[in-house]
Design brief:
Elements lengths: L1 H7 L1 H12 L9 H14 L4 E2 L5 E6 L5 E8 L26 H17 L6 E8 L8 H6 L10 E12 L2 E4 L2 E4 L1 E10 L3 E2 L9 H19 L3 E10 L5 E2 L2 E10 L2 H22 L2 E7 L5 E3 L1 H13 L5 E4 L11 H6 L2 E9 L20 H20 L2
Parallel strand pairs: 3-4, 3-5, 5-16, 6-15
Antiparallel strand pairs: 1-2, 2-4, 6-16, 7-14, 8-12, 8-13, 9-11, 10-12
Helix pairs in contact: 1-10, 2-4, 3-4, 4-10, 6-7, 8-10
Bound molecules: zinc ion (ZN) (2 copies).
Length: 389
């Protein structure tokens, strides 16, 4: 029944997705996107609340009170120029829905429409969250601080993310950590500048930077930690024969669990302090703690597995062997309630949907929209049937 309803709204899902695809907006400026979503909810006859400026929450109240399951879609686009050969292009130059958040929002709107039609049969409530600023800014946190987990109190959460490198029809799950904490840092090194001909009279901050880079990159192997440390920028110097006074470097430190996350800050701090000291330089580390890793609950994953198995449109549920070292701020919800974050295959070689997310050529198979709606709706129903009494 769920699948039939989800596939019956295929044209509507495509039209919603394409409308959002044309207007990608970045973190906290999703004004037109939020307006479109709210207008659609009004059209569907579903009440909503505005939670933070561009965030929207709509709750379907089922029978007898019961538990509440949260479904989350992120809605922001990226500052990437649209170079895809998809027939519908971004209408904002330099911006693109290259992470498929337009698909997430369309799937969640479809799920709301579907569940609203059968709300009298639901064993609890389904709270749907359209969240701004996933890309690096952690828009989930202000929504949580604004009370999105209360009234009614949330008992579990699901989110899907498109995966263009997986075929349409496939769902990917993973127990435990599935996404990393994407923390980053900046190191400012102050040495002593001078003529390049007399290095012995200088404290070269670039030498210190090079040493710090090498030591940081050794961390995962040396300490056998499930993490990545990558220096991505080094700035210093103005010409070929002068040693600069200062150098600035930045990097990303990604881990899959909170112990490693804490350890990384300590290790990088130790490397920076000791190396600078050894060379007679000064160094300041600014560590920017972003979001926690996404850690899936195996019981919530079991609901995804069983729900997906009931659906004919799902070809295969595959178990991911390794976590991604990219991040997702869905982890803020997962810190508070049991959660599952799973991947929805949107890849299709026949139509050239073969590029990864964040590629300017990113393209998705729109046949996946009805599948996404089916899985989200079935997961919500099955969560409430399992835990809702
Ligand atoms: Zn992204
Ligand atoms: Zn994304």
């Amino acid at each position: 029944m769920i699948e039939e309803k989800a596939f019956a709204m295929k044209d509507e899902l495509i039209s919603v997705r394409r409308a959002l695809h044309k207007i990608p907006e970045t973190a906290y400026s999703e004004v037109k996107t939020a307006e479109y979503i709210r207008n659609k909810l009004t059209e569907y006859g579903i009440p909503y609340e505005i939670v933070t400026e561009t965030g929207t929450v709509a709750t379907i109240h089922g029978k007898n009170g019961g538990k509440t399951v949260l479904l989350r879609a992120d809605i922001d686009g990226l500052p990437i120029n649209d170079e895809s050969d998809f027939e519908v292009k971004s209408e904002r130059e330099g911006y693109m829905h290259a992470c498929g958040h337009d698909i997430h929002a369309a799937c969640l709107l479809g799920t709301l429409k579907l569940l609203n039609e059968i709300k009298g049969t639901l064993n609890g409530n389904v709270k749907c969250v359209f969240q701004p600023a996933e890309e690096g800014d952690g828009g989930a946190l202000p929504m949580i601080k604004a009370g999105v987990m209360e009234n009614p109190r949330v008992d579990g959460a699901f989110a899907l993310h498109v995966e263009p490198l997986e075929k349409t029809g496939n769902i990917q799950v993973k127990d435990g950590s599935i996404m990393a904490s994407p923390d980053d840092f900046k190191i400012t090194i102050t040495g002593k500048g001078g003529h390049g001909a007399y290095p012995e009279k200088c404290v070269n901050p670039l030498t210190v930077a090079a040493k710090i880079l090498a030591k940081c990159h050794e961390i995962p192997k040396k300490y056998d930690l499930p993490c990545v440390v990558t220096i991505c920028e080094i700035h210093g110097g103005t010409c070929r024969n002068a040693v600069p006074d200062t150098a600035v470097m930045t990097g990303t430190a990604r881990s899959l669990d909170s112990d490693t996350r804490k350890r990384l800050v300590e290790l990088i701090n130790e490397i920076v302090t000791d190396t600078a000291h050894n060379f007679g330089a000064e160094a300041i580390l600014d560590f920017n703690i972003l979001f926690p890793p996404v850690v899936n609950d195996s019981k919530m994953n079991d609901i995804v597995r069983k729900s997906a198995e009931k659906l004919k449109c799902v070809t295969e549920v595959t178990e991911l062997e390794t976590a991604s070292m990219a991040g997702d701020d869905f982890s803020y919800f997962g810190e508070l309630v049991p959660s599952s974050y799973f991947k929805l295959g949107v890849g299709n070689e026949d139509i050239g949907a073969v590029y990864p997310i964040h590629s300017p050529k990113f393209k998705a198979d729109e046949d996946a929209l009805s599948i996404g709606v089916s899985v989200l709706a079935q997961c919500a129903i099955d969560f409430l049937d399992t835990f809702g009494k």
